[in-house]
Give the backbone structure.
Amino acid sequence: MIPALLSRFYGIASSAREVRLLPGGYHASAHVVDSSYVVKFYDTEPSLDVVAFLGAAGLPVAAPIPSLSGSLSPALPDGRFVAVFPFIRGGTPDGWPVWSPSVLRSLGALLRDLHSLLRVPPTAHDLVWIRDDVRILAQDPYIIPDPNQIMRVDGLEVPFEATLTGLLLRPDVPYREELAEQLSRLHAMRTAALARPAEPVVCHTDVGGDNILVTPSGELVLLDWDEAVLGPPENDFVLLARDEPPGSRVLDTVLDGYGASLDPVRLAYCQLRRYLADACVRLERLADPGCPDPAAVEADLVAWGVRPWRALADPH
């Protein structure tokens, strides 16, 4: 299937002698083909304009290869979409996030370059994650639309918050009281964060672990841009802040390379928002009567949501 697909849609001749499935991925399944290409299949059309723009601008990313039609993600006869990326040799260091200071500082420098690449005027509505906003800017970075027209905060517009509110109506939802408290806490944190507007930048939002590749030459490459957004830079430090061991200088070392400090109020908001969004994904799985392994999903819920939000201190 994959050789025929590569030939038909991309004009790429491949015997596909070696095809291996990459682990992980909630939004797409990915296959490495002959150590030359990564072929990703999506159930819904992905937004790949951002990573294509970043690659054209010289940022170290795996930019999608255009198909023969010029599309970055052509539709397949079965209703799915496909995208092809170059395979980049390298590996992820063990022990995330306790990596060598040189790698951590390089990560900070990479985030600095990303956040400096495309800027828009400050706005009080910069906290909403809307991928289409980034797509608009990436298609023509020299024409900046009015942020007030494309970034809106209308009650529970963000999908996962509306989903959580609906789940809280179920008496059997795990951690129901805690979830209600954390959702109220999120709203209070948002109010505080909105009072400290940031200059929106393009954010990866999933900077950590397997999404960071170190090439044989020592260059860092950020992978998996499916969740890229326009928002405050603190979005890209959430996993570092969550995962660094107590007493370590992991985040401080990354910030040394970044060359700027973070706003603690905005960072706390971005952290709790991520923890609740991750919890929402797991809760939806648990609500599915066909969930194959509820115990494993609930353990995942604790690891990705409950434990981090319990550990998150309110900013001062």
Notes: The first strand starts at residue 19 and ends at 21. Confidence is low (pLDDT under 50) at residues 123-133, 140-157.
